[in-house]
Amino acid sequence: MSPVSDSVYDLLHAEASEIFTGALAACDIATAFDRRIRFSGNTLERLLPDGIGPETINLADYKRIYVIAMGKAAGSMVDVLLDRMKRRAGMRGICCSKYLPQKRNWRFRYFEGGHPLPNDDSFAAARAALAMLKKARKDTLVFFLISGGGSAMFDLPLDEQISLEDTMAFHQALLASGAPINEINTLRKHFSAVKGGRLAMAAPEATKVSILLPDVPLRTLDALSSGPTSPDQSTVDDVRAILAKYDLASKLPASVRNFFERADLPESPGNKGWRPGFLPKLTRVGSTVPRSVTAAANMTGEHEAFRDSVFELLLSSHDLVENARSLAQKAGYFVAVDNSCDDWDYADAARYLLERFHEMRRDHPRFCLISAGELTVTMDRAPGAGGRNQQFALACAFDLAKHSGELLTVLSAGSDGIDGNTQTAGAIADPTTMARARSFGFDPEESLRSFNACPLFTALGDSVVTGPTGHNLRDLRLLIADKR
Asked: Are residues 122 and 198 in the same domain?
């Protein structure tokens, strides 16, 4: 065991936790909303217009206002929108999130969608949204409130013959494949009746305002909840290449495999020849999120449903990182940020970040390395209890054990408060983790192999537990070195 007292490590763990929770608390949805949109009487005013799309929308022009919210932050986003809009005649909505709110507005139907796998309510919410949008006309304004997690929580197969059970198996195969999120979502977009722009296509004449809280890289915003309102640039050829790359066809239920093997597999809506991508113009304003952006204006034919659609970004992992940087600097740490391992395999990311960490802390005795984004885990068996953050923390613990007596710690946690199939956000490791785990009868190597890190960290008291946060801004990793 390390000669450093346990109380000193406890203080270091507490400081890392305070940086994480403080950074998340500073990403307030209501405050971000008020930076982007203002309701004044019958006018919606975009406070950071980018020159594309209307700067104001006259609400009096619309007889109906529909709100469709999905994802882990759906409830929080609905509450803020309702508070800002006050009472509006003709407003109706659908809210699909991981948990049902205690207070519910009578204008809304609420659904408890499944995550990480869809459930009955995932299908029911998607059907209800499509039915609502079918009634939309030119006199309809639709708000889409979209946050991370919607890919599972809000889904319906394009092929009506595919069952919920087979859809769940499809999602599970994707999660276990080790594929990055953009490739996973390419398959989801072509599979689903409400992804890859098809939700927007269900109301082609309506004015559409999508308010986004992304848990995806800003360069691929159309991957958020698999892009239900975004024109999709991925193709059927991309789908087939991804299936082959990860040998996924053999791992899919027969009904799903047969769907993807159709010669006439439908393309998702979007201008497939326009390869620069959807939402290409991202301009930073200081340390805030990119300015608001709108769909491409060169859509033709059926894809005019996307013309002049407005997209507003509330927050992103960039804000989470900047808040963490500020808190770490106030605590006296020299801070560096490295997000380059986004979408990497967790083990590769651990090796890379630890190498940078050890190199930089030689020159900076009080040092904090911050990294945001999501990692991948390729599973070759049914997992135990854990998630990518706990898997990453446990992988780091093996390296930290080589630095006995040094004040080092690694925190990895999800901003939604949920890691994998557990109710913890993540975990904290230090040079004593391995020895303490073995003294409790754990085999850390086996815990890592079986994707079963949660019991180990729970027994050590080193789990990061926040409860559901009503947020989702990707994961945050903190690697901290101290001298006391």
From this structure: yes
CATH code, 300: 3.40.50.10180
Say if strands 43-46 and 37-40 run parallel, antiparallel, or are unpaired: antiparallel
Of 126, 114, 128, give the one whose Cα is nearest residue 195. 126
Burial class (CB within 10 angstroms; exposed 0-12, middle 13-18, buried 19+) of 326: middle
**Tally of structural domains, the chain:** 2
pTM (global) more than 0.90: no
Distance CA 215, CA 211 (A): 13
pLDDT band at 251 (very low <50, low <70, confident <90, very high): very high
Q: Which of 129, 154, 148, 124 is nearest to 72 (CA)?
A: 148
Distance CA 418, CA 423 (A): 5
For 224-238, what is each residue's pLDDT tens digit?
Answer: 999 999 989 899 999
Length of the chain: 484
Residue 1 lies inside a defined structural domain of this protein: no
Which pLDDT score is estimated for 99? 86
Torsion of CA 289, 345, 443, 468, to 10 degrees: 30
Residues 6+ apart with CB under 8 A from 248: 173, 174, 177, 187, 242
Give which of 97, 476, 143, 434 is closest to 312, Cα–Cα. 143
What is the longest distance spanned by two Cα atoms in the chain? 71
Best CA proximity match to 317, nearest among 463, 148, 466:
148
> What's the CA gap between 280 and 185, in Å, rounded?
18
- Taking each continuous run of H as one helix and of E as one strand, the counts in the chain are 16, 16
Q: If you average pLDDT over residues 160-179, what whole number do you get? A: 94
Phi-psi region of 211 (alpha: psi -120 to 50; beta: other; left: phi over 0): beta
pLDDT, tens digit, 9 for 90 and up, residues 460-475: 999 999 988 888 899 9
